[in-house]
Design goal:
homodimer; alpha/beta; Rossmann fold; seven-stranded parallel beta sheet; three-stranded mixed beta sheet; 13 helices
């Protein structure tokens, strides 16, 4: 089993690599080689008997994608991309990385005639308001960010390249990944994680939107489970509609805070300060709330079923199982 | 009023030019200049006081799109593209013309900072089976051809470039244009026009699918009406969802034939020979049947309301009003 991972230095990439290093296997086959790519050098895991190759660079630059697939991977995890805020701030960079980079990788696979399973991380950012109360699997994607547009165009490419037989692609639309480990960042969605992560570390967190805001979340652990599951599922069972909205926990911010109180007490939850921010609120209003995600559940994708579970996953995976 | 038309040598392009030549106006303003582009030289209309410039070439080749927008058009009709069968047979050509050509044109407009109204002809080929009985406006596009994928990616670009303020785009998803004038062609959809056009010209036509097949049609005259209307509507009323499924007449092939009998008699309709073709039938099965098209109707787009009207439009526009 030879595996290529793009975006291997990112948060999800690092967690995927750790999981593969622990399992030593994918799709029931021993991992023989890992090709890890990112714009900065990803960290190589310690894996006995596994040939690990580190690649750095821009997928869209000439020859870059070709060199990545020269090892003829059986499974490609295409995670690379610039995030939403960056794609919005820098128009050219967003299209170059998120669209041209994806197309260059897909074309390199096509021309190498290796037909691997390709798992692509799309996003619920392909959807744009207004929405029904619960978004069905057959709801049309109408992105309201360039990032969402680039992810959607990549989904369309993935489906067409799969239909053509160039590879066997599965696009997974990730919900908001929560609780994101690490430092607070400037992403408009940052508070969803911040209001859990910071109080659990004994620090204040700012809530810039009303408690009534509803959003769908899955843990980093679930994101890795989605990727591993997508690598293994039967492509014939998926049919021609290759892009799947992942399951998650649809909750209000108020319910997130109640879960934090249940698990860590009122003192911890009391570290959240409500400071309304009209700019963030305006952005968040356009985001999807809840999804049916029938198809992905039927295909065996599973996430947490309560926000309590999401918090516990964070405590186990990031805090060594201990509360502050 | 300065107008650029790509794909100006095609059937719809020629009819649009004839209409503009007849009207002399667009959006209530006198036409001062026409830039006409295609891969072969489009025919210049005779229009007093209008500066007509003919361009030929490939939109995706360096500098080509830039030269088209140098005249700073107020309205761009982007009709250029290779058809479905060609995009399926020639993978590279389809992506180059239908995706890269569109993106090059959109980027040339963006970089020229002229912000025109851009009317783009998309297609119901963005949809792929299975479908509900009537396809709602919010149904997800899942193309089953490379042509459909390229049109959908272009729609996503159009919406994002509009949201960014680079231009004011309207994408119109055309139903099958029927009755197509001219010679029979090898398109799988050719019989929808052929079973009307050939009998009306006293010739036999072959029907390769069952009479129960349902499909949505609009006349070439309606296609031109859609384009003219799209050039003039208020962008603010359209909102962020810039791609609209056009109205049309959803009828079974049996109902098409009944309309032909009503208008031209049983002898003419008797020229249709049913010769089932499994290959064509397999393709046609994946095509959409009926659409709600609520949004486009609310925005004032109008098509024929019966297939009888579609046949009469053909007789008036192509046969000088006379039956065989």
């Amino acid at each position: 089993m030879r595996i290529l991972i793009t975006g291997a230095a990112g948060m999800v990439g690092r967690k995927l690599i750790a999981r593969l290093a622990k399992d030593g296997m994918l799709r029931g086959r021993k991992i023989a080689a890992l090709d890890l790519h990112d714009i900065v050098p990803p960290q190589a895991p310690a894996m006995d008997g596994v040939s690990v190759t580190i690649h750095t660079g821009d997928l869209a630059s000439a020859g870059s994608s070709e060199s990545l697939v020269a090892s003829r991977p059986d499974v490609v995890f295409h995670l690379a991309g610039v995030v939403s805020g960056e794609a919005e701030a820098n128009f050219d960079l967003g299209y170059r990385v998120n669209l041209d980079g994806t197309r260059a990788l897909f074309d390199a696979i096509r021309l190498a005639a290796i037909s691997p399973r390709v798992v692509f991380t799309s996003s619920i950012a392909v959807f744009g308001a207004p929405f029904p109360e619960v978004i069905p699997d057959e709801f049309h994607p109408t992105p309201l960010t360039s990032y969402g547009a680039q992810k959607l165009m990549s989904e369309v490419l993935l489906a067409d390249y799969t239909r053509r037989g160039f590879f066997d692609g599965i696009g997974i639309r990730l919900p908001t990944i929560c609780v994101r480990p690490g430092k607070p960042n400037k992403a408009a969605s940052g508070f969803f994680s911040g209001i859990i992560r910071e109080p659990l570390a004994g620090q204040e967190a700012i809530l810039p939107v009303p408690r009534s805001v509803v959003h769908t979340h899955a843990s980093p652990r679930s994101a890795v489970n989605f990727l591993i599951h997508a690598a293994g599922i039967d492509g014939a069972a998926v049919g021609p509609r290759r892009n799947l909205t992942m399951p998650g926990v649809g909750v209000s911010v108020g319910e997130q805070i109640e879960a934090l109180e249940r698990i860590a007490g009122t003192k911890v939850a009391g570290l959240i300060r409500e400071i309304p921010d009209e700019t963030i609120w305006a952005i968040v209003k356009g985001w999807p709330t809840r999804f049916e995600a029938h198809r992905s559940r039927e295909l065996g994708f599973a996430a947490e079923t309560s926000f309590d579970e999401i918090i516990r996953a964070h405590i186990e995976d990031e805090l060594g199982g201990k509360l502050y």
